[in-house]
Amino acid sequence: MADKPSIPKGTRDFSPLEMTRRSYIFDTIREIFKLHGFLPIETPAMENLTTLLGKYGDEGDKLVFKVLNSGDFKAKLSREELEGPAARLGNLISGKGLRYDLTVPFARYVVQHRSEIAFPFKRYQIQPVWRADRPQRGRYREFYQCDADVIGSSDLLNEFELIQIIGEVFEALRLSVEVRLNHRKVLAGIAEVIGIPERMTDFTVAVDKLEKVGREGVMDELRQKGIGQGSLSRLDPLLDLEGSTREKLDFLEDFLHTSEIGNEGLAEVRRLFEYEGDHPVGTRLEFDLTLARGLNYYTGSILEVNSQEVSMGSICGGGRYDDLTGIFGLEGVSGVGISFGADRIYDVLQQLDRFPEEGELDTRLLFVNFGETEVRHILPILGRLRKRGIAAELYPEPAKMKKQMNYAHQRGIPFVALVGEQEIREGILTLREMDSGSQEKLTTDELLERLSPAK
Amino acid sequence: MADKPSIPKGTRDFSPLEMTRRSYIFDTIREIFKLHGFLPIETPAMENLTTLLGKYGDEGDKLVFKVLNSGDFKAKLSREELEGPAARLGNLISGKGLRYDLTVPFARYVVQHRSEIAFPFKRYQIQPVWRADRPQRGRYREFYQCDADVIGSSDLLNEFELIQIIGEVFEALRLSVEVRLNHRKVLAGIAEVIGIPERMTDFTVAVDKLEKVGREGVMDELRQKGIGQGSLSRLDPLLDLEGSTREKLDFLEDFLHTSEIGNEGLAEVRRLFEYEGDHPVGTRLEFDLTLARGLNYYTGSILEVNSQEVSMGSICGGGRYDDLTGIFGLEGVSGVGISFGADRIYDVLQQLDRFPEEGELDTRLLFVNFGETEVRHILPILGRLRKRGIAAELYPEPAKMKKQMNYAHQRGIPFVALVGEQEIREGILTLREMDSGSQEKLTTDELLERLSPAK
Fold first, then answer.
1. What's the CATH class of domain B362-451?
2. Which of A62, A87, A158 lies closest to B82 in CB terms?
3. What is B16-42+109-352's CATH superfamily?
4. ipTM entry
5. What is the pTM of this model?
6. B337 in Cβ contact with B150 (< 8 Å)
């Protein structure tokens, strides 16, 4: 026998059970996006490299999968081609790559189709992305993102709606989460007040690690990066900041009073917490000064969501970016978005054993196949079941009883119907409940009644 | 301003309207697959080239998109890299390609996961595939396939179930179609009887063109391929074959009586038509001797579906293959499958203007935004609407009335609610129906009643 076939490192097959569970997550998120008036789009898996490169930093550029101009050359490169003049191979490099995230293709979409779009444009997009990362546990080279963004409106109501969506999604998934909120302008204000406005990136990168490396760790890193003692002393009380969100904001108001940008950010944070106070979103919302988020395109509020029950990194994140479409030539369009991490949400639900017990349309009933006569009797009954929305199967060949029952068992089908000569004569069927092994005799009408989805 | 961004040739963006219509097609097909107990799987976009190559013929191999080992090299190839020793570039060719169809990855899946699968395995799969074809009208480099296959059962009941599924799908989509049926063994029997059993491929390729080139055209092609006059004379009456399916089958029974393989095929065709006679599938089923289907892996019954209302090539096709998993080392497993062509079905529905009028969860109501006080009043009403499953939006900023109404108009939102100071005092809102322009004053309870989805 040939070697067992396999798939590329970092990619996955999804089995029927995994698919059902993943669909549960995607459908839940999609339904809530729709209730809020978000519209679906899809973009192609391949984008021009000019669209993709230069948007994710040098490291990101390396992780974009490039695609060859396959149509132009023989599938299996000959030795001569591989060892011949390199220029010939150079021609094979096409200008295409696989999409790395959904945000850059979305920005490209908005610019390309702007004349057809009604702004503000509330879009959602659920598609896979590809990254040539080194595969490791929980990190894949192909994974789905579920994004919702509003582009063309700078009002904070958009941020609040996205927080509401987060609350509704995790409530529907029956998961307790905490939403941590911060603001790039608050961070910029702090950098200004402590006298290092031009060191914003170094500053946020270090502060981001507070929980991990502790206060001294943060100070050490900043010191190594050449931040002076004066700045560090001024920063010091912030790293100790405790208490309620209100207390933290009051402290910051005082701290930031000389920074215009800091005050702007703080006012927005306050307004979001006011909204939330008046209209609770059903989940914990916390101000977290150490939240920075890596992506450089954020310019306003930023947020991250964590499970309160399982330790697992962030399961959703997002923020406002003031000029994403500028890179494609459309300036001054503000956007804000969130992205749900379906794989991590899957892992959390799995660990908590909180997936719903059965899929909506899993097969409910298997008819045992005793042969041609019985099959002809069963086919119309099957049709009636399906018309009622009851997923049902007939074993496709008159195999041994044991084999058929084993199939029902392996598939987790809850009911098996036995229709033999006697049953046909009497106009009934025998229904066996697989779990209990109990059997009852029913007419077709009674069967339909018994298995109808409402039950 | 920069050049307007674009996407690679042969790929497409899908707008919200297109997405809604495509989802209608996919959801309809998926629901019916599920009612028949088919289970979903997904496979990765990238497969190893060893999995993909050699399965689609030489022409197919050329059309597989190959992917570079991007992680290993700088994103933008330097001049030196392009002109340096070719071997360096050769290293960049990874062993991966984008999937070309869903059947080969499915066969690979079955072999790889055979110990976890309950056979017969009824699986469906709805995913995009990629082909480096020359793009032209109606032919794309990225398109979706919707496949259902049963693997591990050779009974004809499986063929019949797939024909039932075809009937149910097109009934649900309100499209009149004709299913044309043939059998590879009948074709093999004819080749045998006319004395050219080893020329089966040439024979079927020529006969496949009967409708296009006419009887003389077929004869010419066969003559050019060196088929002798004796064989052609014996073939002659078959190219004239007219009448009902029953008459055609009777003629063939006589014609094929010396061919064992021909009789086997004919018996299967007869049995399928008997099933259909007893249990009509709700669509026309015809025997078509000229149907051959290009893919070489078919070995039993084959079918194709055409619209009876629009001229558009086949919109669904399939057949039985006796040894697909053999290429991956698992011998003797028979399978049968069908594939719906979502793009062509889309075009047929479009031409006939037969998409449903509105999506299930399109936004029903837009609240006009008059400012902060009104917003705070509206937010809880929005929550109540969404809890009832009514998709509703609040315009995210207090823009000019005209701009907000224009947004509702462009988005096709049927109702707009106006809540100003007076309405808040009186505890009501003004509901405007966009089409007619008529307005009425309602309480929140009356609004919920008015817009509930049941209506």
1. alpha beta
2. A87
3. Bira Bifunctional Protein; Domain 2 (3.30.930.10)
4. 0.90
5. 0.91
6. yes
